[in-house]
Specification:
There is one protein chain. The protein has a single domain, classed as Beta-Lactamase (2-Layer Sandwich), CATH 3.30.450.20. The longest helix has 14 residues. With 132 residues, it is α+β, with helices and mostly antiparallel strands. A hairpin with a 5-residue loop joins strand 4 and strand 5. The chain has a 5-stranded antiparallel beta sheet. The protein is built from 4 helices and 5 strands; from the N terminus they run E-E-H-H-H-E-E-E-H.
Length: 132
């Protein structure tokens, strides 16, 4: 797949903190204000939806397989991810995803994302182009 990310890049500010919580099936249970603003959705539009709603087609599926394999083993996954916005734009994030226990004892996954460096984005594009 050639690099065709979308019609408009949404640049994160250094202070943006994007946080989501999903259940063990990847259904969004919580979305931070920054996440909603950057992705272009309201909290009501996101909660209850699969997290892959924002998955950009440029992201190799093997990256998400690695993410799920890692967190389901109880480990933390870190990587550079491009997501799509509701309006067809895109944004890059530096993501850390980790498992946690809900109050009922079930597993949930927390994802904390912030602004990646320009070099991290360039490196990710080069890597993902070879994987797609």
């Amino acid at each position: 797949m050639s690099l065709n990310l979308g019609n408009k890049e949404v640049k994160l500010n250094t202070g943006n903190m994007i946080v989501t919580e999903t259940d063990n099936k990847g259904i969004i249970k919580f979305a931070s204000k920054d996440f909603c603003s950057i992705a272009g959705y309201t909290k009501d539009e996101l909660v209850g939806q699969p997290h892959n709603l924002i998955r950009h087609p440029f992201m190799p599926s093997v990256a998400f397989k690695d993410l799920w394999d890692t967190v389901q083993k109880g480990d933390i996954w870190e990587g550079i991810v491009v997501n799509k916005t509701k309006t067809g734009g895109y944004y890059w994030v530096k993501a850390s995803v980790y498992p946690s226990l809900s109050s009922d004892g079930s597993t949930k996954y927390i994802s904390v994302r912030d602004k990646p460096s320009n070099q991290e984005v360039k490196d990710a594009i080069a890597l993902y182009e070879t994987m797609n």
